[in-house]
Amino acid sequence: MKMDEKFDLIIPVAAKDVDKIGLLISLVITNLNPSRIIIISNVSAKVEITKLPNVEFMDEDKMIPGLTHAAVDSIIETRAPGFRHRSGWYLQQFLKIGYAKICESKYYVVWDADTLPLNKIRFFDDSGRTLFTIKTEHHKPYFETIDRLFDGSVKKRIDDSFIAENMIIERDLMCRMIAEIELSGDFFWEKILNAVNPIHLRRSGFSEFETFGNWVITHAPESYGLRKLRCLRNCGRYYNVSWLEDPQVIEWMAQDFDTVSFEKWHRKRPRIILRALALFFASVRTVPFAKTMKILSWQVTFRKMLKRMVKKMCVEQEPVMRLKI
Predict the structure, then answer these.
(1) pLDDT one-digit tens code per residue, 2-26
(2) What band does 1 get if pLDDT is binned at 50, 70 and 90?
(3) Is residue 175 part of a domain?
(4) Is 225 inside any structural domain?
(5) What is the pLDDT of residues 131-187, one digit of tens each?
(6) Residues 67, 86 contacting (CB under 8 angstroms)
(7) Same domain, yes or no: 284 and 201
(8) What does residue 231 show for φ and ψ, rounded to 5 degrees?
(9) With helix as H, strand as E and coil as C, how does the chain read?
(10) What CATH number has the domain bearing residue 60?
(11) 321 HSE (CA, 13 A, CB side)
(12) 305 pLDDT tier (thresholds 50, 70, 90)
């Protein structure tokens, strides 16, 4: 077995979410073992970030010359007026790409701030080849943008998707992709924003992972292998991230999943009964974690079916009720 190479690990984080990444950092150190951990965020979060152990802070507005939140704001407001609130979502993708320009290591790993690694995760196979994590997803606007960026030379190359909660990037390959995008003279991020259909710019019109993954498979297919991890995207719908501060809860979840995610919109769905049931499962840990997720999901599905049945009955009964009146 060839020894894995060292890599940087970067985590773009919104300033308002910095107080939630302490647990993530400890699990990254334990399970991913990067040579450096760089948190990329707004300068307003610098003091809070530098309190965390073994991390470095990088100012999102100074990392790449010309690439700032305001600059992305300006292009989006011009091409999709009223949707500048989407600029942060696009900016964090450009930061992940642009880090290749300043990375001192041969490789760097991009990791989502809302995802916790529960088990040891390798990014190289036994031959030393880097590994892409693949999942199942297909969003057509991403490929329309890719088609415009590369004049049709880069297409969807695999049935699965490169959109995952992590990606290892070979610095030189990413720099080659950036150089190809910038052939017209524009900065890569300007070219990307102008390649996105204005309608799709309002929501999700570009994916850095889908773009780089398919570019690599087109130009350097021997450089990467493909693998799937056991990922749970909707853990936050039922479980509170603070419960994972108990090592026994992590061990329990890790038996079924390699990573679990706590996305922002899941925090807005705290069904009291479901959360109480989830807390009970996490406390006793006698039921396998994957099975508890099926139970909780079934409860949600049953409630929706019941609501539809009641609504249908009310609609069917309405003419009769009117007649009696």
Answers:
(1) 557 899 999 999 999 999 999 999 9
(2) very low
(3) yes
(4) yes
(5) 999 999 889 999 999 999 999 999 999 999 999 999 999 999 999 999 999 998 889
(6) no
(7) no
(8) -110, 140
(9) CCCCCCCEEEEECCHHHHHHCHHHHHHHHHHCCCCEEEEEECHHHHHHHCCCCCCEEEECCCCCCCCCHHHHHHHHHHHCCCCHHHHHHHHHHHHHHHHHHCCCCCEEEEECCCEEECCCCCCECCCCCEEEECECCCCHHHHHHHHHHCCCCCCCCCCCECCCCEEEEEHHHHHHHHHHHHHHCCCHHHHHHHHCCHHHHCCCCCCHHHHHHHHHHHHCHHHEEEECCCEECEHHHCCCHHHHHCHHHHHHHHCCCCEEEECHHHHHCCCHHHHHHHHHHHHHCCCCHHHHHHHHHHHHHHHHHHHHHHHHHHHHHHHHHHHHC
(10) 3.90.550
(11) 6
(12) low
Residue 318 is predicted with a pLDDT of: 53
- Per the rule left: phi > 0, alpha: psi between -120 and 50, beta: everything else, 151 is left
Out of 47-51, 70-74, 283-287, which region has the weakest mean confidence (pLDDT)?
283-287
User: How many domains are contained in the chain?
Assistant: 2
The range of the structural domain enclosing residue 295 comes to 232-324
Q: 212 near 169, Cβ under 8 Å?
A: yes
Given 175, 208, 229, the domain boundary residue is: 229
Identify the domain boundary among 229, 245, 276: 229
261 plus 125 within the same structural domain: no
Higher-pLDDT residue of 146 and 313 is 146
Same domain flag for 44 and 183: yes
Residue 209 and residue 255 in one domain: no
In a domain, 308, yes or no: yes
| Residue 282: inside a domain | yes
Let me know whether 249 and 207 are in one domain. Answer: no
Say yes or no: 189 and 287 in one domain: no
